[in-house]
Design goal:
The protein is mostly helical. The chain is built from five helices and no strands. The chain has two domains: 75 residues; 79 residues.
């Protein structure tokens, strides 16, 4: 497909710009430590922002290095649109089902679409990754997670 490299580079540049903006906000607006001396609300956003900027920059570098290669990655607009839709559903479900169950639903649906043919692996990832995230944030870091309207699910 003609123009795939340009489309991919434009997309990566847009994501790099948004990641840089996100990182800037994480460093300037969110404090690293709370008033009690514990990790504050800026701890994880800073790590995520720096990782996003680094990964986008590495991807752009790799694309520029292989620009002339015949094998290029297809844009995957359908998958991107489905993931965007699922992300919107995740945000809507957070207040209804709570953080843990919403993440499990999101991961299960995304993996069912993107990783067909591996149901056991998909179920394990859809359950263990959200549970691990919940343990890290809610238990270890004592961060508040969305409880949802159904208290028995959160």
């Amino acid at each position: 497909m003609r123009g795939e490299g340009t489309l991919r580079a434009g997309f990566l540049l847009a994501i790099l710009f948004l990641a840089a903006l996100y990182t800037y906000i994480a460093f300037t607006e969110l404090s690293y430590l709370s008033s009690a001396g514990r990790l504050g609300p800026g701890f994880m956003p800073r790590i995520i922002g720096v990782a996003l900027v680094a990964m986008c920059a590495l991807s752009l570098h790799a694309d520029a290095k292989h620009r002339g290669a015949e094998h290029s990655v297809a844009p995957g607009w359908r998958s991107a649109a489905v993931l965007a839709l699922l992300s919107g559903v995740l945000v809507a479900l957070l207040e209804v089902l709570g953080g843990l169950v919403s993440m499990m639903v999101f991961m299960g649906a995304a993996l069912w679409i993107l990783n067909r043919g591996r149901p056991l692996q998909n179920v394990l990832i859809a359950v263990l990754l959200p549970v691990g995230t919940h343990v890290v944030f809610a238990v270890w870091l004592k961060a508040s997670m969305p409880r949802g309207m159904l208290p028995f699910l959160s």
